[in-house]
Automatic annotation (TrEMBL):
Native source species: Chitinophaga terrae (ex Kim and Jung 2007)
GO molecular-function terms, A-Z: metalloexopeptidase activity
Pfam family, one: Peptidase_M28
Record domain Peptidase M28: where: 216-416
Protein name as catalogued: Peptidase family M28
Length: 437
């Protein structure tokens, strides 16, 4: 009797996995290796590397037979933003020029600082939490913060949120720059070699209004019976670009973060294009997640949130979760019945979705699902990252060799099968409570 039960369970598991067998590990490995290759140069927005990545993803969407989004002539969903960009920087220590990373914080267009111990607050910081606390504090003096080189991986996000703020118009940018004159400013410098307190230094920075073009990569399959109801599969394809070199390596390849998720979106586009979904399905690779979330924000503004039934945002699935193989977690699990629907569709298989084990990290509002989630869409991120232990996160060592492509393939298969009833229109996740957070 026990043998019969075991055989029944094995048959159920096989029946669940079989429809997704087109998702092969060899193809997963090809996609993630291409996206995380050195010639993509870390996929930072506005660089040739991210343009190359966008072209590659567009070609894959074309091969899948997707159509551009309504109103778009290609798979590139382009938009522009204004930002305060650096024109030139001069930095000296003890009268000698240094080619160190210097990041002005705030919206001032000009900095002309010459060291005087009475005029500046000097801090040495080695910890991200300590830095964020310092940046949130107001000060009655200008501040120079020396950063430990180990923090270089966080600079991209700091630039986006605290330095190169993005504006909808040049007038709004100029207003912000004018208001900045009323307060004190902060400059971060990566301390490539120790600088003793009391050492003379000079910083001269000129900045001006600039325009940057961004591009999401998006395509869709029109639904057969419910074309005006949308299911979104997403990931971000941007990363940190070029960082200060570590052991001769300066490219932040972003293999797990988030070439792994982008690979999943491409594979799912090919999987579902072989079917005839009842609801329309959108596949999108977002830009600028690492530098402010501008890609997902723009994408979300083009949609009526009431027509978006669910969003599967896939973020860092390159390694085993803390729950082991055949598992992943869902952020905001308790906010809708999205997770239980997915798990029900996997009944009989070994794969299991868990609630987010890192609630203190607030991951639900830190990824590209956040904008639509705030509008009430059951928009969740699926991930496996052990964010409290990952030694490669936001470093030049986040490379393909650190990934478990067999596990990635298993997760993509599970997402494909678990999404089936939502794609078919037989399940509709409950809405999330709207938020102004």
């Amino acid at each position: 009797m026990k043998k019969a039960v075991w055989l029944l369970g094995a048959a159920l598991s096989l029946s669940l996995v079989t429809p997704a067998q087109e998702i092969k590990e060899k193809e997963v490995r090809r996609l993630v290796s291409t996206l995380a290759a050195d010639d993509m140069e870390g996929r930072y927005p506005g660089t040739p590397g991210i343009e190359k990545a966008a072209s590659f993803i567009s070609d894959e969407f074309k091969q899948a037979g997707l159509s551009p989004l309504p109103g778009e002539s290609s798979f590139l969903q382009k938009f522009n933003k204004y930002y305060i960009g650096v024109d030139n920087i001069s930095f000296k220590v003890n009268g000698k020029k240094k080619n160190w990373v210097v990041v002005p914080i705030g919206n001032s267009l000009r900095y002309d600082w010459v060291y005087n111990e009475d005029d500046y607050i000097i801090l040495h910081i080695k910890d991200k939490t300590e830095l964020l606390k310092a940046l949130r504090r107001t000060s009655d003096k200008n501040r120079l913060i020396w950063l430990d080189p180990s923090m270089a991986g966080y600079l991209s996000g700091l630039v986006a949120y605290y330095s190169e703020g993005v504006y909808e118009s040049e007038d709004a940018l100029n207003t912000a720059a004018e208001n900045a004159k009323k307060g004190k400013q902060t400059v971060l410098v990566v301390e490539q070699s120790p600088v003793a307190d009391g050492t003379p230094w000079e910083i001269h920075i000129n900045r001006s209004a600039k325009t940057k073009e961004y591009a999401n990569v998006a395509g869709m399959i029109k639904g057969k019976s419910k074309p005006d109801e949308y299911v979104v599969f997403s990931a971000h394809y941007d990363h940190l670009g070029i960082l200060p070199a570590v052991a001769g390596d300066s490219i932040a390849n972003g293999a797990d973060d988030d070439a792994s998720g982008t690979t999943a979106v491409i594979m799912l586009s090919k999987y579902f294009s072989q079917q005839q979904p009842e609801r329309s399905v959108i596949f999108v690779a977002f830009t600028a997640e690492e530098s402010g979330g501008y890609g997902s924000r723009y994408f979300s503004e083009q949609l009526d949130p009431d027509k978006v039934v669910a969003m599967f945002n896939i973020e860092m699935i390159g390694k085993e979760s803390k729950f082991g193989k055949n598992s992943a977690f869902i952020t905001g699990f308790e906010r809708s019945d999205f997770g239980p629907i997915l798990q029900r569709n996997l009944q009989g298989s070994e794969f299991k979705f868990y609630p987010d084990p890192y609630p203190e990290q607030d991951l639900f509002y830190r990824s590209d699902n956040a904008t639509l989630a705030k509008k009430g869409v059951p928009a969740h991120s699926i991930s496996t990252t052990q964010i409290d232990k990952d030694q490669f996160y936001h470093t030049v060592d986040d490379e393909t060799e650190t990934l478990d492509t067999e596990n990635i393939t298993s997760i993509i298969n599970a997402i494909a099968v678990s999404a089936s009833s939502i794609i078919k229109g037989t399940d509709t996740p409950t809405r999330i409570e709207k938020s102004n957070q």
